[in-house]
Amino acid sequence: MTNAFLLTRQWRDTRDGVALDLWWATEQGSCWTQITGQEVVFFVLREQAAQIKLLISRLRQWRMAEVELKTFLNKPVNALYFKSHRSARDAQDIFKQNDIPFWESDIRPPERYLMERFVTAGAQLDVPTQAFSAQQPIMNPRIAPLADEQSLWRPGLRMLSLDIETSMDAKQLYSIGVWCEEGKRVFMVGEGTDTELVIFCVDEKTCLQQFFVFLQQVDPDILIGWNLVQFDLLVLENICQRLKIGLQLGRANQSINWRHEEGDGGRSFVVIPGRVALDGIELLKAANHQFQSYSLQNISQELLGESKLITGSDRGDDITQLFKTDKLALADYNLHDCELVWKIFVQQELLAFALERSQLTGLLLDRIGGSVAAFEYLYLPRLHRRGYIAPNLGEFESDVISPGGYVMNSRPGIYDNVLVLDFKSLYPSIIRTFLIDPCAFWLAQHNQLDEAETVPGFNEAYFAREGHILPNVIEQLSAARDRAKQHKNAPLSHAIKIIMNSFYGVLGSTGCRFFDPRVCSSITLRGHEIIQRSRDWIEQQGYAVIYGDTDSLFVWLENNCVGKTPKTPEQCNSIGKRLAKELNIWWQQTLRDEFNINSALEIQYETHYLRFLMPTIRGSELGTKKRYAGLVEVNGQRDMVFKGLENVRTDWTQLAKEFQMTLYRKIFDGEDYFDFVRNTTAQVLAGERDLELIYHKRLRRHLHEYQKNVPPHVQAARKYEQLTGARLRRGHWISYLITVNGPEPVGSDDINMALRQSPIDYQHYVDKQLTPVADSILHFMDESLGQLVESQMSLFG
């Protein structure tokens, strides 16, 4: 048996049935396997078998079989098998016309073949080594999941970083840059003398053909880039179509396949047989990295401390000018972009993360998002072993409304010594502890289990103690994450965390076929109860809980210490560790006594805030939710932490962020802040802080879609189009200032560019940026920005 990792999967109808084309990476190189004679299968009610046979009697090459499966309503089903997808689709059309229900028709043959064998990505192929060939398929090998001792095996994949340069309209190809361990090249259109790195090509067609030859020679498994599919590959496809040649990226000379979403701005998806196209932007988002801008310039600056060789708003014109006058300089720029992408992938371990996610979920390496698909891939084969088929999307009907996470009313104020106790993966641990699971819910209903055989949920839901699926999956994932941490496998640990935390979101999503508000409310309402009872227990220990948010509790240690010296950091840390340990013990005993279940709940002592602010809602004495700030000390270094406040909001100016950081720090440290507030206000009004006044906001829709309420950044964007003739789309960032004549756009590099037509409205920035930030904390000092500024002015009056 040979270890293998799935790269791509495709399928098609043939005369002999459905054929599956699976490309693998192995220790011996790439491998193409083909599984023939497969059938398309879905399920129908057994009670309608006679009617169904009559309805599809004229269709060819199908069969029906009784199977030991039933629906979530406990009705037996038969399986319908078709030799071709076309016949299966014809049958489904007939059933829809006659109101005949059917299930699992959307599971494609490759996914069903692999999931029913519990193969996610890693597998063992029963093929002789001498049979390996990247040009001819190995026919019908036995495929099995990786053995336990091989579960951590991963292939050594070869990456190639790809970037192209084009004219502004992306219709003319200038160059193709590639960066990989086997070599670095720029294929440049135009005349010139070849160098070690730059290959000159007489025209676009020759440039593409030279690139194709290089690609086949180095034979990478993975193509990486920045906006790789939505720009580089799509542009190359359009140019190839114009030149009437194929975009020859696949292995074994196989054609690539495109799928395009309909509508303006729809995404494009590509399948490259034997190779995977991975986009750096999409992978960073999938790994839960968050940045204000995902441009290569911004990300390389933040992560690498490096910049692109050409920056600025006129980059497109600069590239065209280099193409005309200095092709070697353009080649340097092109190749440097490839290098930046390569470094980001290596530094952030993005390929390793993609491998681990694929192995955990069955999602292909290039699949972005797909939490529902990942859940179903893991759940369906286990559900079938329990004797059930999956429901159709939207099949559950219920009047129950599932609430979100519990957010406690806060106690506003400035506090010394606040601890944060946090439940580790609260929702997954609730699922695991209380055996919450769609299949367990059905089993309890259909087998009419008594109280001793079930664990109660909420909204009349209850769950079988035996036969559940999801709690076992989470237990296995949790154990795997612990092992990953022990082996310092950060990508695997991170991937497992994301997958586990997605399970509740999937069950609570109407886009999931298993959505049932009785099941998902049994998770969230149990979370409400756990947070509230934990708060009560902590307060019984003599401490105050000033806030709670879904899975965290904020504990004030000085509530009964008026007039006393505040506790030292060492004392606070000791209390935090003790509270976490004792609360875990209390929950273990409580759940054994009340439900006879083992607790998987784990509360951790997470943070000690030396000083902590819980602000009020503006214009109210009520405390806010999900907004706070605090001062922490780590390894002797004091740092500010902001949650939900202006400092972490992308739609607030740099002025507000820096003002808030400094003002809060001064107050927390007990420093004088009067002069700082007054001087900052005076500098703004004097025009000394103009570069910090720019707003940056992304267009969430196309400009023509904003009709009634037109926000400031859209007003600025429309003026930008009028002034420059450029066309802005959904997703573009707008930089603008508020002037005496309303919002006006500015250039990205120079605030004094001709785009701004009017004087800046400085009072707007005092009223809308400085005042809200200052008053949110000065309120607790019985002061306001207005009072401080007025008192200064009265001194000179």
Features:
single chain, 797 residues, alpha+beta, OB fold (Dihydrolipoamide Acetyltransferase, E2P), Nucleotidyltransferase, domain 5, Palm domain of DNA polymerase, 5 domains, six-stranded mixed sheet, 23% strand
Can you describe what's shown?
With 797 residues, the chain is α+β, with helices and mostly antiparallel strands. It has five domains: 2-150, OB fold (Dihydrolipoamide Acetyltransferase, E2P); 159-348, Ribonuclease H-like superfamily/Ribonuclease H (Nucleotidyltransferase, domain 5, 2-Layer Sandwich), CATH 3.30.420.10; 393-469 and 512-614, Palm domain of DNA polymerase (Alpha-Beta Complex); 645-690 and 765-795, Topoisomerase I, Chain A, domain 4 (Orthogonal Bundle), CATH 1.10.132; 694-759, Orthogonal Bundle (Topoisomerase I, Chain A, domain 4), CATH 1.10.132. 38% of the residues lie in helices and 23% in strands. The chain is built from 22 helices and 29 strands. It has a six-stranded mixed sheet, with helices on one face. Helix 12 crosses helix 16. The protein starts with a strand and ends with a helix. 39% of the residues are buried. The mean pLDDT is 91.
